[in-house]
Structures are given as C-alpha cells and as structure tokens.
Design a protein that fits this description.
Layout lengths: L22 H18 L7 H8 L3 H7 L3 H20 L8 H18 L1 H9 L7 H21 L7 H23 L6 H20 L3 H11 L7 H14 L6
Helix pairs in contact: 1-2, 1-4, 1-6, 2-3, 4-7, 5-9, 7-8, 8-9, 9-10
C-alpha cells in the first residue's frame, strides 16, 4: 500500500488587494463625509478630526487635500450642495407649469429635509464659516433657480416686474423652508409644496393685473393646466371668496 498523501491545509482566501483611490475619488470621499456632518451640525461644530473619522482617514490626509482646513472644506462642500440645489429646478419644458414646479419643489424640500441643520445655518448666515464666497455661492443658487423658472415661463428677457416677482417667490420658498424646519417639519411636506405652488400662482395673477409681460406668460401657462390640477383646484377655492367681494367692482 502506498503511503497516504500528506494532508494539506485548505488554501487561505487571499485578502482583497488594496486599491489606492485617485485624487478625485479621495476628494469626493472627503466631501461626502463633510456633507454628512454639515447637514446635521452647524459648521462651527464640525472639526477636521470629525471629517477624518467619518471618512476613515487620518487628519493629515484631510489637510493634504484641503490645506485651507475646515473653511476650505466647508466652502467645497457648500459648492457641492449648491450644485445639487441648482439641479432641483431643472425640468423638461413640457406639461403643466404647476406640475413642473411641483416636481422641482419636491426635490428642493427633500434636500431641505435631508440637510436640515446645515440648510438653516446656510441661509440664516449666522455661521462663523460664512464669508463673501459662501454668500456668493448661495446667491448663485437663487439666481439659477430664477433663471430656471423664467425658462419654464418661456420668458427670455424678463422685465423688472416679472423678474422681481420670481425672485420674491424664491425668497418665500426659502423662508417657508426655514419656518418649516423650526416648526418640526409641519405641516406635512406635501401640504407645504401645494401651498407654495398656490402662492406662485397668486403672485403671478396679482402681477399680471398690472404687467402685460406677466399676463402673457400667465395666459400661456394656464392654457396647459388641467381642471383637476393645482391651478384648477386653486381657482375653485378662490372664486367663492372673490365672489363675496363683488360689491367692490
């Protein structure tokens, strides 16, 4: 009988090869960690050590990519968040206007919900990390939102009255978002969205009464609305109220 073959230990699974992240991948990783922290804490409450811990890297590595420290990291994270916010109002230019704005508001309010503390610190401007650069980033988001809305209204060269009306509404959306956070995210987000849509249509109607450019844009928008949509529901709620004021005519 031939000698038994020696028993060999089972082969050990080889450890996965370590993959070094590229510069862009590492930067994206650090920004994601920073955004997670800035979303739920005021900037002054976040340290470089906190970012390093969430990212699973060393403090010196964070400084290697962001030698300006927390301020540079905050501004980069803010720019990344601003890019996401600017995309909220990007919608294909088809269908009823209120449905397009409704989808845009859904994305915007979802961002507010996800980045509650950071959103409040950002818009209220009370953070020690606020600078002229951060203010410019925030203002850029507002201007981008206004441009998107005017594009939905198919107005290439808005006159001051219409442009001011759109910017007023964007300011109202921001203010309502902050109050919503302060009120414990009440009313439900769907109700807040519909109320903000009602405000937009009401502002358009009031402005159209004294501005022909807005009136033209409003007539074109209403032509696309559905009777069972937001504009139709608002008209049915408002007409009885307006009827009570017939003596003013």
């Amino acid at each position: 009988m031939s000698p038994a073959a020696p028993i060999r230990p089972p082969a050990r699974a080889s450890a996965p090869a370590y993959r070094r992240l590229s510069v862009e991948e590492r930067r994206t990783q650090l920004l994601a960690a920073a955004l997670t922290l800035f979303a739920h804490r005021a900037p002054e409450e976040v340290s470089i050590d906190d970012v390093a811990e969430v990212a699973g890297v060393s403090r010196p590595l964070v400084y290697r990519y962001f030698p300006g420290g927390k301020q540079q990291l905050y501004e980069a994270a803010l720019r990344s968040a601003a890019d996401d916010l600017e995309q909220c109002f990007a919608e294909p230019p088809t269908g009823p206007l209120t449905e397009r704005l409704g989808r845009a508001l859904d994305r915007y309010l979802a961002f507010v919900d996800e980045h509650d503390t950071g959103f409040s610190a950002l818009l209220q401007g009370g953070s020690v990390a606020s600078t002229s650069r951060t203010s410019a980033i925030v203002d850029g988001v507002r201007r981008a939102a206004a441009d998107q809305i005017l594009a939905h209204l198919q107005v290439a060269e808005p006159a001051p009255r219409l442009r001011m009306m759109v910017r007023m509404w964007i300011t109202a959306v921001e203010a309502a978002s902050l109050i919503w956070l302060d009120e414990g995210k009440q009313p439900p987000v769907g109700e807040l969205r519909d109320w903000l849509l009602d405000q937009f249509m009401a502002l358009m109607t009031a402005t159209a009464a004294s501005d022909e450019q807005t009136a033209t844009a409003l007539r074109a928008a209403l032509a696309l609305e559905r009777p069972d949509g937001c504009a139709g529901a608002l008209a049915r709620r408002v007409l009885p109220v307006v009827g009570d004021a017939a003596h003013l005519l």
